[in-house]
Amino acid sequence: MPGPLITGFSIRIASRAEAPNSESLPPLLSVGRPVPVQVSGDKLRWSGWALASSVSVPATSSADGVTVLLAGELYHRAALREAIGPAASGVSTDAELLLACWLRYGGPGLRLLNGRFAAVVTEGTAAVIATDHAGTVPLYLRRGVDGIEVATEAKALAGGAVGRIPAAHPPRTGSVAGLAGVRRVRAGVALTVMVGRPAAHAVATWRPPEHRVTWTEAKAVRRVSAVLNDAVRERLDSGPVTVPLSGGLDSSSVAVLARGAGAVVETISLGTDAGDEFAAARIVAEHLGVRHREFQVRGVDLLRQLPWAVAAAEITDAEVLEYLLPLVVLYRAVPGTGRRVLTGYGADIPLGGMHRATIRLACLDQVIATDMQGFDGLNEMSSVLGGLAGHWTTHPFWDRAVLDVLVALEPGLKRRHGQDKWVLREAMSDMLPEATVTRPKLGIHEGSGATSVWTALLRDSGVAERDVPAAKNAMATAIHRRVVAQAQPPDAVSFDDVLREVTAKPALAVGL
Ligand code: AMP
Ligand code: MG
């Protein structure tokens, strides 16, 4: 099975009995087979839908009065099983492993999990709603007088079936534009809510390391190789994997490690008439001897799919959307569904790769610390980006153990001998062509032309240079209102119409 058993859900948990799944399917963008969620516990009743890989997958797992729903997957399962002991020996699914973990450790057991998941656990009248360390399967909540609604996409909670309780917002949650009462559970959080009552409390299950380690070059290189290799292996199953390949250091590292672990790897690259990295990707694909495919779209057709990227990431930040749009377009273009996709996404955040001009180590370490504080809520690694095309994506560089190592390295190991991301380049130097190991960073938004094409379209519509960033955000916000707050299908929203609406506004003509 290429993806997890369950990839998303939209559920309601109430203290009273509900009519069994009277509601129609929620407007989730992720593709999967809807399986009904129906649990009648002593105190709480669950209803709703989960997206599963097959209709025969049970949505929830229960034992000893505890019920678990897990969207996504766990990594480092063997070590977790060993920690849990005999109770884990008979379990087969990740949901059962989480249940066994809970029965041994209770809520604090969530701190043991390294995975890509969103989970709901109920025991008694308490519901615990948990994200993975980086919140990579986004999780949204709405509380009401008679129950709570929880979903892996905010749009599923648009409209809102529960009467709201006038209470303070639950801790460690954030707002969602255009959806009053809907809260996003922050990354690395286990939030406990008492169903039907205002009480709520949260615990942090992970925080980015704030200390730094002073390892020798040799030790740092060894540890980075080992932890990244583990993370790639943990993300493989027995089937083939697809790697979106730019030919840059990060995606090439993932591809070569997956190949080295014995996986059948296929690499895919996206380019437009405004830019591509095809030549660089080809060097790596040829070096690895893997099947490689290039997808070429017109720049304007890339931008026309922006409603899909907004609907998937459920954000309004145009700068982040420029990174995510090419990936969404690529996931939609690649034939078939059900691929397991390993990306090189995110390596630059702990290593400071975007800050290659930052020479001073004090500055470099500070921007890395700031970026690690600020990733939450950007939804850059949302599973919905690939889920909308029926693929399961996963990002080895944001494995919890990899982050723990990369973030904590003293900055002189990240910038060294005049090179950015030195430790990773060194770790990969025996495995990749020299041209790849030394290749300067090019962001996906630059390589694919996403940024320049969007800018050109706005400039052609009369937007002044200085107003371009604001116009992009205004477009993203207008699209978000429709595809998230109003839950319209992305195909119902025209990029060209939104461009006309936004550029017709007098506010832009006079400067924002
Ligand atoms: P970057 O912004 O370059 O760090 O890109 C993040 C990730 O997106 C890379 O590690 C690749 O997995 C993927 N990627 C970037 N550019 C492309 C591209 N042109 N074609 C396919 N995948 C890409
Ligand atoms: Mg790149």
Describe the protein's architecture and organization.
It is a single chain. The protein has 512 residues and is α+β, with helices and mostly antiparallel strands. It is built from 20 helices and 18 strands. The strands form four sheets. The protein has a seven-stranded antiparallel beta sheet, with no helix packed on it. It has a six-stranded antiparallel beta sheet with strand order 4-5-6-7-12-13, covered by helices on one side. The protein starts with 5 loop residues before the first strand and ends with a helix. Magnesium ion binds at residues 246, 248, 442-444, 447.
List the defining traits of the structure above.
512 residues, alpha+beta, six-stranded antiparallel β-sheet, 20 helices, binds adenosine monophosphate, binds magnesium ion
Topology record:
Blueprint lengths: L5 E9 L18 E8 L4 E8 L8 E3 L2 E9 L2 H8 L9 H12 L9 E9 L2 E6 L8 E5 L2 E5 L21 E3 L6 E4 L3 E6 L5 E5 L12 H18 L6 E4 L4 H12 L4 E8 L5 H11 L2 E7 L1 H5 L2 H8 L4 H16 L6 E3 L5 H4 L9 H14 L9 H4 L4 E3 L5 H9 L2 H4 L7 H6 L6 H4 L6 H4 L2 H11 L7 H18 L9 H10 L1 H4 L3
Parallel strand pairs: 14-15, 15-16, 17-18
Antiparallel strand pairs: 1-3, 1-9, 2-3, 4-5, 5-6, 6-7, 7-12, 8-9, 8-11, 10-11, 12-13
Helix pairs in contact: 1-2, 3-12, 7-8, 7-18, 17-18, 18-19
The site of adenosine monophosphate has 20 residues, from helix 4, strand 15, helix 8 and helix 16.
Strand residues, percent: 15-25%
Secondary structure: number of strands? 18
> Helical content, roughly?
25-40%
Look at the helices and sheets and give the structural class: alpha+beta
End-to-end CA span: 50 Å
Across the major sheet, the strand order is 2-3-1-9-8-11-10
